[in-house]
Design brief:
Length: 409
């Protein structure tokens, strides 16, 4: 091998991402782990992902097949398997081979085990809470989480080389809840983009849904769950339709069967059956076609540490209506790429903002251009991976400086 190739190989650093789940049904964290694992290679890093087959019905075979040729995925059947014998030895080897370990989410025995191995062999690790340290998340099963936080996670955080957040608000909320965290960093996430042009996507959507071809569309895209308050968007349609009779709402996403049925019944009881369309979970081109055909994106969520769906809407030039519980709202409102929904006037604000945009196509297009510009500037996976690798480099330099200080002392 040429000398240059030897040098190049020697400079590649390795990160081990650890996540208790990697199945897409688990929501945002698996997407983040996958995209970072794919894109860090452009910045001198090689990624491995350690996870479990949780939520997979085939023992994880489909997860391994999906990761093939994209990133290296390793699965352990459960966190308990890593506590003894060969499993723990293999895990220790994986940690030793990494330059840095990146733990994703909280409340995971797997992460706690990996953190303990890192401490034992003095391997630096960073933690990404993915919004799980903010007041809303901590309030769910709060007693169990507070006990686990005190007994396990507080040490995981305290001994980390750094704690990485996706937005300033996520960092500030976490610090307010648990106190100081070591070397906090902020790396905004990215969003995927469609392969087809918006014109082609709109044409596809109109072919699939000809009854919506001449409608002015508002879209709710996400899990149908009380946290995201899809019921508020449905109720707001009464005010929208009073001013914009040809407006329609796309409900894109799935959820618990009983809850989704309740939303449909609620829509019918409000006399909105003809204008609220439940399209279910859409992926790939079908999802992009629905977004590209919409004029307004609405997400009155109670909590989102980033909300990748919002960034996707921005990329397609769709103005967003969001609450201040979505942690990138400052950036969006500051760039005039969307509008803020006030908590005390949620339904009224959603209706009035939607009417203002749907009733003024020029203003809607202008806001859409600003949305796209913001997304290209701040929310792409290559840029996110570049900032992530810079954070890793900084963390490793902090570690080296701390070691030099300890030796000097």
């Amino acid at each position: 091998m040429p000398d240059g190739a030897d040098h190049c190989e020697a400079t590649v650093r390795r990160v081990l991402h650890v996540s208790p789940y990697i199945h897409p049904a688990a929501g945002g964290p698996p997407v983040v782990v996958e995209r970072w694992a794919e894109f860090v290679g452009d910045h001198g890093w090689r990624a491995r992902v350690l996870s479990t087959p949780a939520l997979a019905t085939d023992g994880g075979r489909s997860l391994l097949a999906a990761a093939k040729d994209r990133y290296e995925l390793l699965l352990v059947s459960s966190a308990l398997d890593t506590l003894c014998g060969t499993g723990r030895a293999n895990l220790r080897r994986l940690v030793q081979e990494a330059d840095i370990v990146h733990l994703h989410t909280m409340w995971s025995p797997l992460n706690a085990i990996v953190a303990s191995i890192c401490r034992r062999i003095d391997k630096p690790y960073v933690v990404s809470p993915h919004g799980m340290l903010d007041p809303y998340s901590l309030g769910i099963k709060s007693l169990k989480k507070r006990v686990y936080l005190k007994m396990v996670e507080s040490r995981t955080i305290r001994d980390a080389a750094g704690v990485l957040f996706t937005a300033d608000d996520e960092r500030d909320l976490a610090v307010a809840q648990i106190g100081r965290v070591p070397h906090p960093g902020v790396v905004a996430l990215g969003a995927d983009m469609p392969n087809a042009s918006e014109e082609i996507l709109r044409s596809r959507f109109q072919s699939t849904h000809p009854e919506l071809a001449d409608k002015k569309l508002i879209i709710f895209l996400g899990r149908l769950h009380p946290k995201k308050r899809p019921d508020v968007v449905i109720r707001a349609m009464r005010g929208v339709r009073a001013k914009i009779p040809d407006a329609a709402l796309l409900m894109v996403g799935d959820g618990q069967h009983d809850y989704v049925d309740g939303l449909k019944q609620h829509s019918d009881s409000l006399g909105l059956r003809e204008c609220v369309h439940f399209l279910g979970l859409l992926t790939g081109d079908e999802k992009w076609a629905a977004l590209a055909s919409s004029s307004v994106f609405a997400l009155p969520s109670l909590q989102e540490n980033f909300a990748i769906a919002v960034a996707e809407a921005l990329h397609l030039g769709v103005p967003v209506l969001i609450t201040d519980k979505i942690n990138i709202w400052h950036e969006i409102v500051g760039a005039e790429a969307g509008m803020l929904l006030r908590e005390a006037f949620l339904e009224d604000d959603l209706a009035s903002h939607a009417v203002a945009l749907l009733g003024d196509p020029r203003n809607c297009r202008d806001m859409g251009r600003r949305a796209r510009a913001l997304a290209l500037r701040a929310y792409t996976w290559p840029a996110s991976a570049q900032r992530l690798c810079a954070y890793y480099d900084t963390v490793l330099e902090w570690q080296r400086a701390a070691c030099r200080g300890a030796v000097g002392a």
